Amino acid sequence: MRSRSNSGVRLDGYARLVQQTILCYQNPVTGLLSASHDQKDAWVRDNIYSILAVWGLGMAYRKNADRDEDKAKAYELEQNVVKLMRGLLQCMMRQVDKVEKFKHTQSTKDSLHAKYNTATCSTVVGDDQWGHLQVDATSLFLLFLAQMTASGLRIVFTLDEVAFIQNLVFYIEAAYKVADYGMWERGDKTNQGIPELNASSVGMAKAALEAIDELDLFGAHGGRKSVIHVLPDEVEHCQSILFSMLPRASTSKEIDAGLLSIISFPAFAVEDMNLVNVTKNEIISKLQGRYGCCRFLRDGYKTPREDPHRLHYDPAELKLFENIECEWPVFWTYFIIDGIFSGDAVQVQEYREALEGILIRGKDGIHLVPELYAIPPDKVDEEYKNPHTVDRIPLGKPPHLWGQSLYILSSLLAEGFLATGEIDPLNRRFSTSVKPDVVVQVSVLAENNHIKKLFQKHGVHIQSIADIHPIRVQPGRILSHLYAKLGRNKNLKLSGRPYRHIGVLGTSKLYVIRNQIFTFTPQVRR
């Protein structure tokens, strides 16, 4: 029997850590992860981030397998990931009527819920009892559905599920104009429950749309029916709005540490490297402390001055939270992963050392990432006078699954068990790479020979529609009708994409429909 290699021993250590801190919370029936042993709700966003360590560890085992048991372990971990993603899919499919309504109303009351019952996949609060409309959470699900499918996992099983995913694309494609509650679930900074346009949601939607476009959800076993389609104009709208907002996070938030998720891993939604650096520097200069980063300025969550009996604040209260905002270690894991992707070894080392210094040692010495660090109630006045000088205390029962998962994933990357391309098989990380200039070319066609001859009289030689056979030319409205048929499903009572005009990017492509090549003339808005 071969002896265990050093890398195998280290991977086994990470496997124990994953089992003791993440998978122990996974429901055996639904696959969902509860927030803790006491909190049984499963948040969509947290579940996706929390399973990334399991996904990464599975790939690490497969790549570094010493024995057959390692391959079996890799398969087991991958199936844990599939089970969770399918659990989230089931939660959303049970709310298919909301997906159908939201495409037309974009109302907060018609949105998918943000959290579900871990044991049953059912909803846990009413439509108006939580800030459910969180476009970034739905987009994050689609982004990693695409990435995990591209990595070889089989998550989607049937064409009904494909149709539902196609409708989720329609659900998020208008993110550039949808005010939502954002990744912190409470809307604007005052916690008045007012939705607003959030850069983190727009950016995550842009990334998801780009990642899932033309992806076969059945992987190597699929065909044209299992391919997802995205209109390029919707991506461009998201990009334009995102670029106009950054580095600002929203109307009420000057900057938000959550933007790390869109300027770097996992979204890589910003293509302008200068804008990436400006946003990153804003986060570091305004939000970073000794224990992590604040979510945003004047964030009252779990501070000693917050009234825990009220969900919302009075606008005048925000001043009370200045300089005593809680600091979240999870954001340092983003900086570590960002440094690995950008090849900045100094940044990786700096944040790994900083994070190691604030981890909590649990049973058997395992490392746990706490949710946040807060100012002790009796030290508030001292912190007001001298910001970032008071020693903070961890709050929340460790581990914080989201942070724990990204900590493990960053460690696997930093120690060489994973390559960046393995957790980004769709190459989102190259979004800031220099691209060739876009050359706009306009093709002019004569509708018939009579018009063609009129042009020739003036010395302009063009082809007629008949001359370019077998390519067929149709008006843009036909393409709008074709897109309206995408995602239609009688079983789920889904109507597909709402009829809307197609933009110039959509009509700038050649389409193969039933083995014939079509092009469409631009659709004129009236």
UniProtKB/TrEMBL annotation:
Could you tell me which residue ranges the GH15-like domain spans?
Answer: 8-499
Predominant localisation class? membrane
Q: Which UniProt keywords apply?
A: Calmodulin-binding, Carbohydrate metabolism, Cell membrane, Glycogen metabolism, Lipoprotein, Membrane, Phosphoprotein, Prenylation
> What's an example of a GO molecular-function annotation for this chain?
calmodulin binding
Query: What is the recorded membrane topology of this protein?
Result: Lipid-anchor
Q: Cellular component terms, GO, for this chain's entry?
A: phosphorylase kinase complex; plasma membrane
Compartment annotation: Cell membrane
Q: Give the metabolic or biological pathway.
A: Glycan biosynthesis; glycogen metabolism
The protein's assembly and partners: Hexadecamer of 4 heterotetramers, each composed of alpha, beta, gamma, and delta subunits. Alpha (PHKA1 or PHKA2) and beta (PHKB) are regulatory subunits, gamma (PHKG1 or PHKG2) is the catalytic subunit, and delta is calmodulin.
Q: Which family does it belong to?
A: Belongs to the phosphorylase b kinase regulatory chain family.
Q: What does this protein do?
A: Phosphorylase b kinase catalyzes the phosphorylation of serine in certain substrates, including troponin I. The alpha chain may bind calmodulin.
Matching PANTHER family: PHOSPHORYLASE B KINASE REGULATORY SUBUNIT (PTHR10749), PHOSPHORYLASE B KINASE REGULATORY SUBUNIT ALPHA, LIVER ISOFORM (PTHR10749:SF5)
The molecule here is called Phosphorylase b kinase regulatory subunit
